[in-house]
Amino acid sequence: MIPHLRATHKKKLNPLGFIKGSPRKGRFYRKSLITILLIASIPGLITGMTMYWLVIGQMEKEFNRLHQNQIMNRAENLADQFSYMELSLSHWAFEPRFGEELKEMDYVYQFTETVDIMKTLYVLQGSNPLIQKVELYVNEPQPILFNRSYSELTDLSLIESYNEYLKDGSHIYWTDRIPGQPLAEQRTKGTENNPDHLLQTDSGEGLVLVHKIPGGSLRPFGALIVKLDNKKVTNLLKTLTPYDQGSTFLMDQKGNILLSGGDHEGSSSKQLNEEIRQKVDLSQDKGSLLYTFEGISYSVSYGKMNRIDSDWIYVSAAPITDITAPLLSVSKGIVLMSTAGLLLAILLSWLVSRRIYTPIERLLRLLSAESTGNNPVPPAVNVDEFELLEAQWNELVMERSTVRKRLELQLPQLRDGYIMQLIQGHLSAHSETDLRQRLEDLGFRVQDQRFLLVRLQLTGYSKLSGRFLEQDKGLVTLTVVNIIEEFAEQRFEQVSVLNFHDLSAAILLTGEEEKLKASVLEWSEELMVVINQIMKMNVTIMVGRSTSSIRDLPSLFMELEQAEAFHSIEELNQLLDLDHLTLAHDIEQSSYPFLIERDLIHAIRTGKEEEAGNLLHDFVKQVTQRQCTIYQLQQMMLQLLASMLHMMLQSGIPPYELFSGRNLYDELAQLREPLQIEAWLKSEVIAPFIAFMEDRSHSGLKPAVERTMERIDQQYMTDISLEACADLEDMTPYALSKAFKQVAGINFIDYVTFRRMDMAKRLLRETDLKINEIADQVGYQHSYFNRIFKKQEGLTPGQYREQWNR
Fold first, then answer.
1. Among 181, 284, 396, 410, which is least packed by CB within 10 angstroms?
2. Nearest to 792 by CA among 760, 768, 763
3. For position 234, what pLDDT does the model report?
């Protein structure tokens, strides 16, 4: 069916180009609706959005100012705590017990003074909750460290680390060098992780306050070292974020981060701090800014914090969303109310516009009822309903003429498709009258006409591998169909050529009874010559019986398909006339090459792929030397395939798993040329089985199994045993039995039985020896031979010989 015609049959279209009953309106309606919407709803929406943005923007600025003032107060409190520690440490540094006498002091004999010093350090450590540890280090007369105990330092790298505290130019200063950590480790860590010796709080480091002793001395020989508790300082730093979210950190004068804290973790926190650090103006004493990170707006406040040896800069970043959260809910309510008002305005506008459009709608409905149903051209741009109604009538008239011309061009394709369904039996439910009427509607003259079907099959395609590929069958068939159509139109008035795309075609011809059959036979002979010259292929043409009833065509076509199976497989042109061919005749019994099949199955079982290929070629050659039909060829090849699959099943390899559930019988039945069948069996059946067997067999056991199989082939008529063969191969009977099953796919005793039965059947077929003589020659006693033969073949030896000699 033409797609254009299908569309017009499904739904009736109105003159405006819209489906009848559709809610879509024209340009006039849209203009009216848009005008009402602008008047009724847009001002309310603009008011709501303006209120939202103005209020939110103003509130963000106000809260940013309040946030800055609050952070400044908390920063002063943090600075006071650091100042208190600096003042306390300076007070203790000027204590007499930390004076010049420490140089001359013997800490072992003056045990009381030593204990006093340690108690003083404990007091200093407990003077402030931010202090984690207090140490005293002196390097004269020898390096000594007071911590929780007294210890003399002998590690040179550790001594060098503590001496670094005495080399700084200031008497009291802040640093990030960890007391007790070797200097080499500090330098490595500073180089790899922090080129500017920044403090990495997440690695376990902390701030350190150092005061040299004696206080005020020009040549200090020791230092009081106060290490702050990193966790407590970080918690104190978090108080700079008033809503317990965001991020805070301290920087030195150069902009290096000393300490940080916040609700972010890992790389996200570092990235936020680093981006804010780059935005801070270090030249100002204080300031604020708005910054967006990962879709969240932050209010950033910063200022300077004066320390005893340098100035620090504190930075606090708090999310604006937390500050403005209460206001956001109110603003959203305003927007929702405005949106609700907009929806109400749209509904009211739609109701009003419907009333305005009612007269035009009645006119369009009236014209739609008179529409011819043709598919009109879509409406032009900038043309309203009134202008369109005038032009649409002319468009429909022109469309009617165009559809008629298209239908005339599509009639041959429609006719061929209908005839294809007819001969394949899909229209069997229709009466003879209906079929004739439909053919007449498609331009076929059927009155006083007889119908005749011809089937054409190309052969010899496998020999054209140099010219065409396997996937080119459809292209070759199309070329032949075009040749047939051109050649038939010169002889017959009415012809329909059906393409099956598989090197075959069918032809329906009509004519008078007395001339039709003779003309078709003569034309078929000429057609074979033409196809031979152009395509270089042979042709088999089957001419059916003529009939005057259209309902008989499916059965006549089925006869043609059956006749195709009985033409000769020889590579030559053939012309078959069903009036002179009886399909039910007795097919001459062709001798099946059992001996070649036996050797072929044995070669496949033992993995001899080249020998199997040669035997398969001999099998096909012996079959095709006789004048057999395609039917006979397919039956014998199907029998061979069944024998192969049976052997595989006996070898312990289920064909269903080996071939992934493929229907090999159906695939083989589709092939018709001997060369194609031979190539398919080699590549699709024999090669996969041998490859599977080779993968399964063990490379070290395969030679031993092959020698054992050759020994059985030569000595099967003797009393050969598994134990004797295992001794010859220096193996245990169990190992040889297991290897034999794995490599050959069959048990040892089953293989011996197979060789003996194979020779016995051969002697029964080809000789007149008695049953007991045959039993002796194959290694069996007479009584046991009868039982084992019937178990294997289902017949007694005598019955087998009688059946074969019939």
1. 284
2. 760
3. 81
